[in-house]
Specification:
The chain crosses the membrane at residues 12-36, 90-108, 129-156, 176-198. With 206 residues, this protein is mainly alpha-helical. The chain has helices at 3-8, 11-35, 84-118, 123-158, 167-171, 176-205; strands spanning 47-49, 55-56, 72-73, 76-78. Helix 2 (11-35) packs antiparallel against helix 3 (84-118) and helix 4 (123-158) packs antiparallel against helix 6.
């Protein structure tokens, strides 16, 4: 086993196994949904929690708080018999995240395989590391935006209340960790690329 392979373990094995398990689970879920009633593959999230419009007090008391405390009630709208459009919106709330996760694992798997085969400090590794960084950076923003817009549209089909107005802005949450991780990978890609160029120059001199 090469030194690069040793350094990349157990990450290489974990990523490879996880990717195969996820793909297998998706295929199995799809096949089961074709033949077994009650298995809903790719149905998505058909409920929207309106946590920015919670209430407290009133005559509705399913829970009794202790003295000096109060309990809030957050409305949650769900489609009992979803229409085709609602099902599409439900899928759009969850499918982009699944695509991003599997795509990220696939890119990471390709990066690790290349690093094992050709070495860590190579131009190829830097290029694939750069692709993975952009995937996380842009993908996380696209996923969050798609999920929030779909959630807002879904809420608009479930209630006529003004709480549905511009709901996507309330549902949107900045993916700080994914963005910072993507920026970090782009930085490391430049470092690896610079190191690979320096090594090539040294090899040319020798």
């Amino acid at each position: 086993m090469s030194e690069d392979r040793k350094m990349l373990e157990p990450l290489t094995s974990v990523v490879s196994v996880t990717l195969r398990i996820l793909l297998g689970a998706l295929v199995a879920g799809f096949l089961l949904s074709l033949f077994i009633d009650g298995v809903h593959w790719g149905r998505g999230d058909l409920c929207v929690t309106v946590d920015w419009a919670s209430t407290s007090g009133g005559d509705f008391h399913p829970f009794e708080p202790s003295p000096g405390a109060e309990v809030g009630y957050t409305p949650r709208f769900c489609a009992e018999e979803p229409t085709t459009w609602q099902q599409v919106l439900g899928v759009l709330r969850t499918a982009p995240l699944t695509v991003m996760l599997i795509g990220g694992l696939y890119l990471l798997d390709r990066l690790l395989r290349l690093a094992v085969r050709e070495g860590v400090h190579t131009r190829g590794a830097a290029a694939r590391l750069r692709v993975l960084g952009w995937w996380l950076l842009l993908g996380s923003l696209v996923v969050e935006t798609a999920a929030s817009v779909a959630g807002g549209l879904l809420l608009g089909t479930l209630t006529d209340d003004q709480v549905a107005d511009a709901a996507w802005a309330q549902l949107w949450s900045a993916p700080y960790l994914a963005v910072l991780t993507g920026l970090g990978l782009l930085t490391f890609a430049r470092i690896v690329g610079a190191w690979a160029l320096l090594r090539d120059e040294l090899d040319a001199v020798v």
